[in-house]
Sequence to fold (686 residues):
Amino acid sequence: MSIRYRYTGDGANGFERFGTAHRPEFLQDLFLSMLRIRRIEEEIERRYHQDQMKTPIHLVIGQEATSVGACAALRTTDLLYSSHRTHGNYLAKGGDLKAMLAEMHCRVTGCVGSRGGSMHLIDKKVGMAGTSAIVGGAVPIAVGAALAAQLKGEDRVTMVFLGDATTEEGVTSESLNFASLKKAPVVFFCENNFYSVQSPLSTRQPPRDLHRWAATYQMPSVAVDGVNVLAVHDAAAAAVERARAGDGPTFIEAPVYRLRAHGGAGDDTHTGYRHIAEREHWEAFDPIALYQHFLRNKQWLDDRTIGEMETRIATEIAEAFEFALNSPNPTQDDLTRHVYAE
Amino acid sequence: MPWDEGLVNSLVYDAPDPAEGRVISYVKAINEALTISLGSDPSVFVMGQGVDDPSAMFGTTRGLQAQFGSDRVFDTPLSEEGMMGVCTGAAMNGMRPVFMHNRPDFVLLAFNQLVTHAAKFHFMDNGQTNVPMVVWAAIGRGWGSGAQHSQAIQGLLLGVPGLKIVMPSTPYDAKGLLLSAILDNNPVCVFEHRWLMKKDGIVPEGFYRVPLGKGIYRKRGNDVTIAGASHAIELGMRAAVDLEAEGISAEVIDLRTIKPMDEHILLESLEKTGRIVAVDTAWMKGGVCAEIGCLAAEKGFPFLRAPVARVGLPDIPTPAGYTLEQFFYPDAARIASAARSLVR
Fold:
């Protein structure tokens, strides 16, 4: 069979039941945020072969709705932890674009001073609190962050993004168990994109629904259309509210498709691990195109507004790359800093 | 009762002189450090498998849950990696966790979080985040502990940037070093030794700190330096007494902290004696013994009047049986013999 994993959502029809509950400005902001991430990713991808960004990249093209929908449910003071695929999370949480691109250009003005690269995009000012390049690494750390908020009596919620393969790591089971035991204010957001690098889910797990597996840890666990930004937001908002109320963790599974290779620029479907028909099938459910269709039909978005957004985004991206490329490199003295905290 | 209680009870230590100060047990000293830390800083919490059970982590956590509540002193699931990550995340967000393990062998399950996360975040995020946490474990030896319940893993961690490793040898240090470790803004491993836990010592009341990264002279001497930490110092001191009777004057350095290692005190002593026996509770290869030996060769070469000697564990897994153990573990006689061979 050429298509191993199919889209099972409602496509453009899936927005109706969520859309009317929000103000048009909010709905437009979500669109702008997704479009911005897409254009930033495309520009990174376009320039990557120039080798000025000497860092691994893990593009989120096709996965914009999950980051944007989930982060729209978080306050700036709430925390987000993430994996190696950080670009979308960082930008949706409000991370500074100039600092992100400077980091990818290995400059001292990078968000972590050229010590982390693209897999460690961190901006604590906006709650982009930490990432791990080891699958599952950030999951218990997020639970620890949630435990800290609980012990200190703060109403801060922690969310952690994980992938389908993360559910195979033992530490994820450990983390779900402990979070449930302590009613930790944490939201586990699982982007199920069906592939770990080039290994399909079917070679890694028996047939099962990831959210049903998570539910065995005695927490609410839901599946949501991962290309529908409003559905994602709705599920995330409910989970965040529950966590903030002290009722404990929630697991959200969002099936979504990575339209590019696991790492680097471009797609790698031609290598044969997945069928071109599968990618084309999912391209028809592009999260930005679907949402744009919905907003246009509702007349909440028109060509003029989209044009203005594109112009604004293009200017911002050009300025950010210029900032990155003109930023100084670290010096030798920078190497020995921050090995130990004072 | 822990299964090795009989063994530990049979160990004989010199009794300290009460005229010199307040005498308490090693276990009580650790308990006091935890009590003071929990009492003075609401961000401190203590967790680990069995910290609230009747054995109370060899007695070190006895009474803490009753005093400070089950939010701050709690038992954990058997999830070493997950719980190490929980500590890391809590430490990154304003808490000071103390994660206690019966044996270092179980810390190996959590190396991903300890080595690749806790020790790295402060550097990786350009100093935005501190990770102030303590990982405590007691090295077991004897009573059939064998290959999987007696490992001294400090050598595996010596090469991990960002970690500190503390190995006390006296009740005074156990308390003062633990207080320092809890107040330190980095991940600190505290490796205790089960055999030291029935030792009594002079321990001041209240708060005091033993600085991390500084060694101390336990005995002054001129002919040979014996250097190491933890229970190896107990053996080293006995060896030094025996050597004294033969007219060999040994200097004994207790490193207290093996990472960062106090290079100054080692080189200062080596300059005087020209000879060094590196001692450790763990394997000689790639560990504390190797690091001391390398320092002597690299920075102390002009002082050396004899080769470096190492007395630690051979490159063999720990056997469980009593007889094999006697061949495996070094004792004071072996340290004395090594020192003797350098001097003569």
Summary: The interface with chain A takes residues 43, 45, 71-72, 76-77, 79, 81-95, 97, 112-113, 116-117, 121-132, 161-162, 164, 185-186 of chain B (CB under 8 Å).
